[in-house]
Each structure stands twice: as structure tokens, then as C-alpha cells.
């Protein structure tokens, strides 16, 4: 059997006023990253040089115009730029229209490369929602941008931390609205999408647990009706399609059971239900994978951290994990 090649990973440097440049440089300072993939940065060399000075990085910069020109050698940082900007006007830790535009340009370049099949994976550093809004972007964030601009049917968000894999019916939505949003149709759609994506990852009959909404899964209607009205019918409908759906499982135990290996994936019903479990387990190693796109996309699960940007205080564990884990998931698809 032929050996699987290393995937080409585009690492976007994020908002240039935030910690993105620092943590992406720090990621490419790790030999382990080059052991599992061929990484390069999408960013601006003057901003990257500024970050390299902060990180005491003396690596060589290799400017490329396309991924095929990359050297992909530890000790060299391959950089693909997106244009010329007024770099001197970018200040650490401030919301700026130009910074928002630059971060959008980096993301859109990664989409262009992904659609052209010049890269296999994108690992994204954080962008700032207010900054991209100032730059004219009407979408909420990374996931929405990637889904819309790749014309994908869905952008399915998964948190990965250790061996826990958590999906979400809803994300950025008021909690009282999220409870109503998790109806039978939407839960079933999510379960079907998870089943499809995990089958692509070569899971055999993936075990998909659906989290309950109410305490104790409502104890047969004592504490709410959402399980009987929506969640149980969604699970039964999925099972009728041959999907190994399980639940609803009370939310105070489903994540513990998932960590023990009982399930391959867990569908949480709203943002904080899954986020709290994952980030309490290991905040720094919690990362996001977006399924449903024409290419693999991953991201850190933290923001631009303007308060510490440019101070060499930002940890790079999540950025490293985002890059390495995404490469591993890509390899799973190639088996």
C-alpha cells in the first residue's frame, strides 16, 4: 500500500492587530508540525517579520506566489501574500478597518486556493468580528464566510479535544431561541450530516449521541417536553435510515461518556452546552473543524486577544493543535 503524502496546509495569520501573527509564527517554529504536513502562511511579510521579532524567530522567509513554490522545510517559513497594505498604520490591540480587510483577504485567498485544489487544509488564526464588519463583511465569522464563499450546502462545526468530538445544532443564538431551534427536522439534519462526514472519515457505523435538553432528559416529561416532541422522534427517524443514532442522553453525562469512548460523536443542542464541556476539559487544546466544505478547515477556539497582542504572552498550543489535528483528519479521509 502506498504511503499517504503529507497534506499542504495553508495557515491564515488572522487579524494583524491581534495575536494571530505571533501564534502562527510560533506554530511554524515547531518541528512536529512539519512532520505531519506541509505548512505555509497566508499573510503579510512585514507583519510576519514583526511577529518573528517578538518570538525571537530567526527562520528564513521564502516568499511564494503559489503553494507549489513552497520549500516546506523546518527553519524556513513559506509566505504567500495577498497584496500591499499600509502596514505601518496597523497598531497592536486595536479594532481597525484595514486589519479587518487584511484578515478577510487572507481568508478569501485560502478559499481560492482550496477551490483550485492547490491546498488540502486551511488552519485559521482568529479574526475580529467588529473589524471585518468595518471592512464591509456582513457575515458573522469564519464558518459563515467559508460556507457562503465555497457555495457549500452546510458548514458543520465540530469541536475536537482529546478524543471528544462535539457538534452543534445552533451556535451564536440566544439561549431561549436555541431551545426552540433544536426541533426534530434540524436535529435529524445534523445527525445525517455527521453520519455522512464520519463515514467519509472511514468510521464504521459511527455512534452518534444526541444530547438531551432538559435535566435528566426530562424524566419522561416531568421536566419539559422537548425530548418527547423533538429529540426522540429525530433519533428514531435517523435509526430508520440506518444511522447509529443514540439518545437523547442527559447532558450531564453524555460528554463524560463520549470522553470514555462510548460515542464517536456527540450532537449538542446549543453553543454553551458543548463549549463548556470541551473547554473545561482542555481549553487550549479545544479546536474547531468545519465539515461540509470542499477542503478541510480548522481553527483555534479563542479570539484575537487584543489585550496581550504584541507582548509575547499568547500561547500557541491551540494554533499548533488546529494545524496538526486538521492534517490528521485529512489523512483519515485518504485511507
UniProtKB/TrEMBL annotation:
Origin superkingdom: Bacteria
UniProt-listed Pfam families: PdxA (PF04166)
Record keywords: Metal-binding, NAD, Oxidoreductase
Single GO term (MF): metal ion binding
InterPro entries noted in UniProt: PdxA_fam
Protein name: 4-hydroxythreonine-4-phosphate dehydrogenase PdxA
Organism: Zophobihabitans entericus
